[in-house]
Design brief:
alpha+beta
Length: about 180
């Protein structure tokens, strides 16, 4: 067979566009958009094509607390990781290895890189471990001394560890490395 199947041609119709994705009926009139059910008229969003839940999200944006982990706080280049490995100091734990490099020449905020190898697990497991480690660092970022580069290398056991266990180990390793600025 040289051309598309019969069913694909039937779905496309004469115009060549897929009928399922089109907002136009066969007579050329527009199909109505399906919206979110609204309890009463006072709850109606100002834009009918946007759902009620998303309109609430935009209204409450000013009151929400921004919990950010910007790219400026991350190590990304291979040369940065290599420099940290050459010149930094490592602290080993049960679930992770923390490497620290004190950057005196350029005063800047602390940056972190997170490494999860395939040995930790599949892609879903590695991403979960990475998200947990990123959140642990983000929450304690205000306590960490400035002018440092950090690398957290997740070990295989980190995949099965609870969040509290990972946090406790991070704080223990950070304390051993002298990273935490804890006011008495």
């Amino acid at each position: 067979m040289a051309g598309p199947s019969f069913h694909a041609a039937a779905r496309r119709g004469a115009s060549g566009f897929c009928r399922r994705a089109s907002r136009f009926t066969t007579s050329g009139t527009r199909r109505p958009r399906v919206g979110f059910p609204i309890a009463d008229a006072s709850d109606a969003p100002s834009r009918p094509w946007r759902s009620f839940a998303s309109s609430l999200r935009f209204q409450n944006r000013s009151r929400a607390v921004r919990l950010r982990f910007p790219k400026s706080a991350r190590l990304a280049r291979a040369s940065e990781f290599q420099k940290l490995k050459r010149e930094g100091v490592s602290f080993h734990g049960k679930f992770m290895v923390l490497s620290v490099l004190h950057r005196e020449e350029t005063p800047a905020p602390t940056r972190i890189g997170i490494i999860t190898s395939r040995r930790v697990g599949g892609a879903v497991v590695r991403n979960r471990v990475r998200r947990r480690l990123r959140e642990i660092f983000r929450a304690d970022r205000g306590l960490v001394a400035a002018d440092r580069w950090l690398v957290l290398i997740a070990r295989q056991r980190a995949a099965g560890a609870k969040f509290e266990e990972l946090r406790a180990e991070w704080r223990g390793l950070a304390a051993r490395a002298g990273l935490l600025n804890v006011a008495a």
